[in-house]
From TrEMBL:
GO molecular function, one term: DNA-binding transcription factor activity
UniProt organism field: Bombilactobacillus apium
Family per record: Belongs to the NusA family.
HAMAP family named in the record: NusA_B
Protein name per Swiss-Prot or TrEMBL: Transcription termination/antitermination protein NusA
Amino acid sequence: MSKELIGALTALEKEKGISKEVIIEAMEAALVSAYKRNYGQSQHMEVNFDERKGDFHIYTVKEVVSEVTDSQFEVSLDEAQQISKGYEIGDHINYEVTPSNFGRIAAQTAKQVVMQRVREAERNNIYNEYSQYQGEIIQGTVERSDNRYVYVSFGRVEAVMEHSDQLPGEVYRPQERLKVYVAKVENTTKGAQVFVSRTNPGLVKRLFEQEVPEIYDGTVEIVSIAREAGDRTKIAVRSENSNIDPVGTTVGPRGQRVQAVVDELNGENIDIVKWEADPSDFIANSLNPAEVIAVQFDDETNPKSCIVIVPDYHLSLAIGKRGQNARLAAKLTGFKIDIKPESEVEFVDETGAEVDEEGID
């Protein structure tokens, strides 16, 4: 070993952010194992690194005792005091046992330890860097795709997008720039694994934060999002400032703000409704664009369930294609919604006869 090792450790500390002391400590532990493996020793060993010379020294450690029962681990008080009169029973003495050819073993071990620590440090650095982006949007480059994933490069790391996180009908071409939502970051033995998504509702929220300054600064708040990715999304917004229209602000002049998000999501329909503290008003808003006549709650049976009465000519609009409008409204509000046409409610009220419930949860 030589001073070159010290220079290399200093460079690693600057370039990789790996503490020189951490590497030296790891090398000392590894060299103890290497010494015992190569020289068949079982004593208590210590390795010390001489930073001035860049050399490692091996020591066997023995305890000072009144009567020696195992010479590998113990030394008598008389023998210890021949070295120094200051030794007492219970003290420990280091005897240097560095072999003449230990430099080669030390160099090989040091190389292995450094490489291992560099890999660990790079994994941890990448994990620490990208774990900060969890729940955020990052723009990456599509690298390739297979039956399981679309691979998106961020430079230092390659993220994966599972099939369930890919927008239906969206084609991912190599070298295409793509905005993705960082859904999860895991620190595995093979390195940081970043999972990204184009279907997560969080993507929609972050896109609106980028397009609407009032959402970014908190003047307008996105209260809830219900999304069927690639098709339709409903967003509930509110503002504590009575002078601000949260829906109009989010939509933007001539719909420019919402259109920018729609374009990023390849034409996904986005409904923006006003959140209301009164559940009946919020539920009515959530079924937009359908008109709502009344919202009735059954607080005794199920306080999170309601019947929504709509005009007959708005029944299909309220339910939506394949029940989508009502389904998204239920997700947005957290209520189980049963939609009834006005004529059916009037029929029950007038005759008391039982009728089949129409609508959708």
